[in-house]
Every structure is written in C-alpha cells, then in structure tokens.
Design goal:
The protein is of the alpha+beta class and 140 residues long. The chain is built from four helices and five strands, in the order E-H-H-E-E-E-H-E-H. It has one domain: Aminopeptidase. The model has no long low-confidence stretch (mean pLDDT 93).
Length: 140
C-alpha cells in the first residue's frame, strides 16, 4: 500500500475513487477542494486500486495557532481493520507537522464505535463533550 497526496490536476483520480466517499464526488467540488490552500486529500492505493482516503482542512486562529481538522476518513469495506485508516491518519499527522500545526482534531458520532476505535488507536484522545449545531443556508 502506498499513500499519495493529491492536488490540482488529480480530479480524475478522486472521481475514480468515488465509491470511497459518502456520495459521488463532482468534478466542480473536487477541483475546488484540491485547489483550495489548506485543503488536503490523501489517497491509499493498493496496486492500482484506491482503498482509502482522508481529508483534512487547516485552520488558523489568532489565539490558537494552526491546527488541522480531520474532515473525513474512509476505507473500502474489504480493506477495513487492516491498518489503512491508521496509515492515512499517520500520513495526515506527518503533513500537519510539516505545516507547523500543533495538533489534529476530529468529530464523530458517539455511537460510531468503529470510528471511535480507529481514532483512539491512532492516538486521538477524547476532548470535552461538545454539541454540534448546523444551519442549512437557502440559496439567495
């Protein structure tokens, strides 16, 4: 298995790995993500097959510095529990260090035991309990 960091020009690679995502990626959104500074997409590849991915977004705050939010992590079902997610998270942590981030953080549902186990095994600690609120914006 190898892990590749994708960037502008790799849209076709992301689209070809569309089954790894929650929904099918679009060319427009993929191009925008890959072209956005501070947006990172790492792809795990076995032979010619994409078997997992992780995305991260850098954030900088005036009193906190630079950190990386683990936006999404996915592994193809036949490759789960084989270290793919751990390798992706380790590679993302390495990238975060290169960027001068002081840490990474992630949010997941409390009932998602598989995700919790994955992040815990990758060295993530549970932080304070928080509520996540969302607001859908209507087009203007």
């Amino acid at each position: 298995m190898r892990i590749e960091r994708l960037g502008p020009g790799d849209e076709a690679t992301v689209l070809a790995a569309g089954d790894l995502f929650d929904g099918p990626p679009t060319l427009e959104w993929t191009a925008a993500f890959l072209a956005s500074p501070g947006h990172h997409l790492l792809l795990a590849i076995d032979g010619d097959d994409a078997i997992g991915f992780v995305t991260g977004i850098e954030m900088v705050h005036p009193d906190k510095g630079r950190e990386l939010f683990v936006y999404e992590l996915g592994t193809a079902a036949p490759h789960r529990r084989r270290g793919v997610a751990s390798a992706l998270l380790a590679a993302l942590a390495d990238r975060a260090r290169e960027l001068g981030c002081y840490g990474l953080w992630v949010a997941t549902e409390p009932e998602n035991q598989a995700a919790l186990a994955t992040y815990r095994s990758a060295g993530f600690d549970e932080a304070e309990l928080a509520s996540v609120l969302a607001k859908t914006l209507e087009p203007s």
